[in-house]
Write a structure and sequence with these properties.
InterPro entries: NDUFA12. With about 130 residues, the protein is α+β, with helices and mostly antiparallel strands. The chain has 4 helices and 3 strands. The chain has a domain at about 5-80. It has a 3-stranded antiparallel β-sheet. A hairpin with a 6-residue loop joins strand 2 and strand 3 (about 50). The protein is elongated. It starts with a helix and ends in a 47-residue tail after the last helix. About 5% of the residues are buried. The mean pLDDT is about 85.
Length: about 130
């Protein structure tokens, strides 16, 4: 990432100011699989924040870390929560607005044709 984009943009990780403030007033609490780094305040451990690895999108924070950020659990997730079970799937970020978003049959961009009506529908006609 270039100097100017790091200086003036906040949507691709932390700006210089946020990085300096975090280094001075924050203690690293942990990291998740997506590369996001979680911090707690040195003075007040109840104050917590995340520095995203890439786009700043809250849906990229896993549910366990969301619980930690909101204060639902006191300790970091790998210590406070039970291990992940086999049937649990990893969380996905919000895909709205991307090519991976769900598009029903007949929607623009889906490439599929909407199935024909079955005939059991009667439209309302005002009298």
């Amino acid at each position: 990432m270039g100097f100017w984009s790091k200086t003036f943009t906040w949507w691709n990780g932390a700006t210089w100011g946020t990085s300096l403030w975090t280094r001075r007033f924050g203690d690293e609490a942990g990291r998740d699989d997506a590369g996001n780094v979680y911090y707690r305040s040195k003075k007040d451990p109840r104050r917590r924040w995340v520095i995203y690895d890439g786009a700043n999108d809250g849906s990229r924070v896993p549910p366990a870390w969301q619980a930690w950020l909101r204060g639902t659990i006191d300790d970091v997730p790998n210590k406070a929560l039970p291990p992940v079970r086999k049937f649990q799937t990893p969380p996905e970020p919000n895909l709205t607005g991307t090519m991976a978003a769900f598009r029903p049959d007949g929607a623009l961009g889906s490439g599929r044709v909407r199935p024909a009506s079955t005939g059991d529908y009667e439209p309302w006609i005002p009298e």
